[in-house]
Amino acid sequence: xxxxxxxxxxxxITIQGIAQVTLKSERDSDGNVLIYADNTxxxxxxxxxxxxxxQNLVPNGGMTTIKVVSPGRSQIARLKKENPTQASTxxxxxxxxxxxxxxxxxxxxxxxxxxxxxxxxxxxxxMTHIENTLRNEQVNDSYVGLSFTxxxxxxxxxxxxxxxxxxxxDEEIKGNSVHYNSLDNYIEIYHEDGVFSRIMVLxxxxxxxKVGDTVFPGDALAESAGxxxxxxxxxxxxxxxxxxxxxLITRSYTEVSxxxxxxxxxQVKDRIEILVEHPEEIILLEMTKKEKKKxxxx
Length: 298
Prior knowledge:
This protein is mainly beta. It contains 3 helices and 22 strands.
C-alpha cells in the first residue's frame, strides 16, 4: 500500500518581505517525519512550532516546540510514526520566529562603549517612553534606552563586538524640531550572549558596514544625524533580548552599563557628560585568538 503524508504549514511573522526562516518536512524510510529549518540570516533565530490535528504522528517535543535555529539548514523536529502498520499520516502545524537566541544568557554587568568615536565629549540621557510624549505627561517610566547628544555631527561606532543583523539607512527625516520619528534609520548588532544593540538616528546612506559583518568595539558604523531634532545632533541606543513567557517569545528592553569618563562603568539615570575613549582592552575583550592575532598585525 502506498504511504500517504499530508502536510499543512502556516508561518506567522510580523516582518515584511522575504522570510528569514522557512520550514520543510521530509519523511524517512520508516515513515517518520523530520522537519528542517533554513535560516538565511547570519544570526540565530528562535522558532516556535505548534502542531494541530496530528494523525499517527507523535512529536518529540510536545505539541508546542521551541527551538533555536542557527544560520543555514538544520533539523529541528522529529515526529515518530505512532502505529507503523498504519499507512497514512497527517501533519498540520503553524510556526512563528523571532531573531535571536531565547536560551542565551546575557553577561551580567557587561560594559558597553558609548556608540560614538573616541575623543568626543557627549552627554547621555535616559530616553523617555513614547507614551509620555504622546500624552505630554510622565505616565511610563520603564527603561527604553539611552540618548547621546553632541555639538557637531560625528561618526557612530559599535558599542561591543557583534554581528550586524539589520540595517535601515535610506530614510530622509523631514521637518524641524522633530522629537521622535518611528522611521529613523538604524543599524542593529547581535551579540553572542543574545543581546541586540540598535543604534538609531543615522545619516541616510552613510552605512560603513553591511548585514553579516562582524564588528568590534569602536568600529565605525555610520554617520550621525538629528540636526533637525529638538535635541540637535544625537544618536539613540537601545539594548533588547528575547524573553519567553509561557509559549510566547517577545523582545524586551534591557538596561545596560556604559563606560563613563576615566573608565567608570555607569547606568545612566540622569543627564551626564562623558569623554568617550576606546581602550584596547575593551576592543580585545570578546575577540577570539584568531581575531586578536589579526588585530595585532594591523
